[in-house]
Write a structure and sequence with these properties.
alpha/beta, 18 strands, 9-stranded mixed sheet, single chain
């Protein structure tokens, strides 16, 4: 058996150490998914406080007195089964707040420098900064890793790079006068490079500089090349159409396993959800309902369509439905949902914040999970829902469209339906989808069959990991042929 091939991932977050969304879950899962495919993936992450606190006996492997004007060192460590390289730069990462925002919810004013330093470190690692280890390929995740190809080119390195777009809505923009501070070449500040309407775009740097591009679902890859979804970068992506593909995200089916999950009353059939439903209703102060118990586990934003759900809420409650919501984000939406809970005691329950164990209990107890997003690159919520036998009621967009089989007449007759899809961005379409959910819930045999279908639906990395491995192999073969 041949030795695993070395590759480097570069990301701003990784589960279980630091997480603000699905990006962290994917970055944390990919090393384990790719190991059976013959790739040993190390992950370079910033040394935030939470990351540094988790390190046990880290090994210094590089020292950089001047990394874009700041002292830094590189630490190697293994945490939670992950092979990590941690960029220890206290001036950049040792601070309160989230990876991107301060305690008041504002962007850190030096985010451009913080993540440019991560990219510069990635280029140094690709150049051999870690003695005895050098990656064959660098896998970049979102804008925070987007400047890496620029620094690689400046160093004269031909290491192939793959950029995965998790959400094109975030460009990593900074002022043009930051070129010198970020030590970026003036020649790169052009229409064909990282210039974007008078700004530097870290994401565009990755889109124009990486050897290949992927995003997290086939449908999202197609959507990104349109004006409606491309967020001003659709032209760039159409130009790179031949290098762009969609590889669907998966979830860790060991962590997300209703038969063994320590956070819930374990179950392996839809009937086993009843005990978890009772627990969930008690936690959220909900009475026993005359309709489906639906949950929302989400960042609260207009992208996620939570304002649309508020508008459709009266009709769903009138049909006997109940809603339990866990999330945080836009203060306007937080307050609106708290107001809805106060107006509908026993039928709407709201927790502001995030609680991983509670999210498991919500999927386990729910009849349905609502994801009314205006756009959704992939989404993991619907995958957790399928695994736990909670019918996903989702907008027909991005990865939601790729992972849920709509309960139309044909799918019901064929016995393959797993959830309900609706037109995105429409209160009327969402209202109809919720009415269909209530109607199906009252057809108990049909509803249980859809739940069984959902629980059998593949949601892991079995199909996607070989696609990534094949792309890695192709890029490194291409690199050897062009070297």
């Amino acid at each position: 058996m041949s030795a695993p091939r070395p590759a480097l991932a570069v990301a701003s977050e990784i589960a279980p150490l630091v997480k603000t969304g699905g990006l962290a879950d994917v970055v944390g899962a990919l090393p384990g998914a790719l190991a059976p495919q013959g790739w040993a993936l190390r992950t370079l992450v910033p040394g935030y406080r939470a990351v540094m606190a988790a390190l046990k006996r880290p090994k210094p492997v590089a020292d950089w007195p001047d990394l874009l004007g700041r002292p830094a060192r590189l630490l190697a460590a293994e945490v939670a089964g992950l092979d990590l390289l941690v960029l220890d730069a206290p001036e950049l990462y040792d601070r309160e707040g989230s990876p991107y925002l301060d305690a008041a919810g504002n962007d850190w004013p030096d985010n451009d420098l913080r993540f440019a330093a991560l990219c510069k470190a990635a280029a140094l690692v690709a150049g051999g900064a870690v003695k005895g280890w050098r990656p064959e390929l660098v896998h970049l995740h979102d804008w925070q890793a987007g400047l890496t190809p620029v620094y690689l080119a400046e160093a004269g390195l031909a290491t192939p790079t793959l950029l995965t777009i998790h959400n094109i809505a975030f460009h990593g923009l900074t002022a043009a006068n930051r070129l010198a501070a970020l030590r970026l070449p003036e020649v790169g500040y052009s229409l064909d490079g990282f210039e974007y309407y008078g700004h530097i775009s870290a994401l565009k740097a990755g889109l124009t500089g990486a050897r290949a591009l992927t995003t997290v679902s086939p449908t999202y890859a197609q959507e990104l090349m349109t004006e409606d979804f491309g967020m001003g970068l659709d032209g760039v992506l159409r130009h790179r159409r031949a290098d762009l593909g969609g590889i669907l995200n998966g979830i860790d089916t060991t962590v997300w396993n209703p038969a063994t999950d320590p956070a819930i009353r374990p179950f392996s059939t839809p009937a086993g959800k009843a005990a978890n439903a009772r627990i969930l209703r008690a936690e959220f102060g909900l009475a026993k309902g005359a309709g489906p118990l639906a949950v929302v586990v989400s960042r609260l934003s207009d992208q996620k369509g939570l304002d649309l759900l508020l508008a459709a809420l009266p009709g769903f409650l009138a049909g006997g439905g109940q809603v339990a919501l866990l999330g945080s984000g836009d203060r306007r939406l937080e307050n609106a949902w708290l107001t809805a809970a106060a107006a509908h005691p026993g039928r709407v329950g709201v927790r502001i914040g995030y609680d991983e164990a509670l999210s498991h209990r919500m999927y386990a107890g729910a009849d349905a999970v609502l994801v009314p997003s205006r756009f959704e690159p992939c989404g993991l919520t619907q995958l957790y829902a399928l695994r736990y036998g909670a019918l996903p009621v989702v907008a027909r967009t991005g990865g939601l469209a790729d992972t849920v089989i709509h309960a139309n007449a044909a799918a019901l007759a064929a016995g393959c339906a797993t959830g309900i899809l609706h037109q995105p961005g429409s209160v009327g379409a969402l209202d109809q989808a919720l009415a269909q959910l209530c109607a199906l819930w009252r057809q108990r045999d049909t509803f249980r069959q859809i739940q069984r279908n959902a629980m059998r639906h593949p949601v892991g990395w079995e199909a996607s990991a070989p696609l990534y491995a094949a792309l890695y192999a192709r890029l490194t073969v291409d690199n050897r042929e062009t070297a």
